[in-house]
From TrEMBL:
It comes from Herbaspirillum rhizosphaerae. It catalyses: iminosuccinate + dihydroxyacetone phosphate = quinolinate + phosphate + 2 H2O + H(+). The keyword Transferase applies. The gene is nadA. This is Quinolinate synthase. The chain holds residues 36 to 354 of 379 of the full protein. Signal peptide: none annotated. It comes from the Bacteria. Iminosuccinate binds at residues 25, 46, 117-119, 134, 204-206, 221. Its cofactor is [4Fe-4S] cluster. Belongs to the quinolinate synthase family. Type 1 subfamily. [4Fe-4S] cluster binds at residues 91, 178, 275. It is an enzyme of class 2 (transferase). Keywords: 4Fe-4S, Cytoplasm, Iron, Iron-sulfur, Metal-binding, Pyridine nucleotide biosynthesis, Transferase. It is found in: Cytoplasm.
């Protein structure tokens, strides 16, 4: 514990010395989330991370999350220096949607408006008309559907399927999934609900349909935390990465949080309920990038210039 405190003190000092700001996602180590908050940075969902990074005056942003979050920050602010604790922290959705295959998919359906989830590479975003995050995907697709647009959606099939069902939009879905949320099980959740009949069921929409169907609240990480804050419930069953429990416990001390069931448990299944790539962010590598300035995100400017269009559309829509 002493060593962690010493690391945190050194990180605080370096953030100040380097005029850098820490932007963290709710799934990373709790110490990193606390540091971001204490030092004037932000801890939030992917939409807020993008917005905060773009508007903050600091010229160096340290993004604790996964690669697409650092890339989005760089695309929005090419003049800023974006560092990440580990550049290999990727995402199964990004990995499952290669630029070549995605381009071929778009080429085969030129009549469709291309909407991609934030969890994609810069090159995939460069081909898209719209980028969305989980907190705003539903509203944007609803808007496009009302304008009579047919949609090509990539890469998360569960989020896409959920939005399609809610909006009735004509959506052609790429078949990607998040390896963490894909593990949540509908039948086991039904059994768990019987044990905790008063619990509120909180579900991230990257989860399978059988799990989403049982939700009391469906939303992005920030939206699920807001639900905990505003609810009178005493117990919550949480179907998303368990890194979020750090903030939920802070938001509602004394309340009970129960992990939604997965096929394995955390001892036997590494990716169950905690993202292995989010877990690559730690105090040690955060300190190292601040000391050395290593692990900088670079985006080909030509790709960045194209990719920024679909992100700006989302931010303007959200404004
Ligand atoms: P949020 O935008 O809800 O924070 O989700 C990001 C993510 O990667 C979820 O797995
Ligand atoms: Fe990607 Fe899933 Fe990890 Fe989120 S939790 S970064 S969607 S693999």
């Amino acid at each position: 514990a002493d060593e962690r405190q010493a690391l945190k003190a050194r990180i605080r000092q370096l953030l100040k010395e380097k005029n850098a700001v820490l932007v963290a996602h709710y799934y990373v180590d709790g110490d990193l989330q606390d540091l971001a908050e204490e030092t004037g940075g932000c801890v939030s969902d992917s939409l807020e991370m993008a917005r905060f990074g773009r508007s903050h005056e600091a010229q160096t942003l340290v993004v604790a999350g996964v690669r697409f979050m650092g890339e989005t920050a760089k695309i929005l602010s090419p003049e800023k220096r974006i560092l990440m604790p580990d550049l290999d922290a990727t995402c199964s959705l990004d990995l499952g949607c290669s630029t070549d295959e995605f381009t071929a998919f778009c080429d085969a359906h030129p009549d469709r408006t291309v909407v991609v989830y934030a969890n994609t590479s810069a090159a995939v975003k460069a081909r898209a008309d719209w980028m969305v995050t989980s907190s705003i995907g539903l509203d944007i697709v609803k808007h496009l559907h009302e304008q009579g647009k047919k949609i090509l959606w990539a890469p998360d099939k569960h989020l896409g399927g959920y939005i399609q069902k809610q909006t009735g939009a004509d959506m052609l879905l790429w078949q990607g999934s998040c390896l963490v949320h894909d593990e949540f099980k509908g039948v086991e959740l039904e059994l768990l609900r019987k044990e905790y009949p008063k619990a509120l069921i909180l579900v991230h929409p990257e989860s399978p349909e059988a799990v989403v169907a049982q939700a009391d609240v469906i939303g992005s990480t920030s939206q699920l935390i807001a639900a905990v804050q505003s609810s009178d419930a005493k117990e919550f069953i949480v179907a998303t990465d368990n890194g979020i429990l750090h903030k939920m416990r802070m938001a509602a001390p004394g309340k009970i949080f129960i992990d939604a069931p997965t096929a394995g448990n955390s001892a036997t299944c590494k990716s169950c309920a905690h993202c292995p790539w989010m877990a690559m962010n730690g105090l040690q590598n955060l300190l190292q990038v601040l000391e050395t300035g290593s692990n900088e995100i670079h985006i080909d400017p030509a790709i960045g210039k194209k990719a920024v269009v679909c992100i700006d559309r989302m931010l303007d829509f959200a404004a």
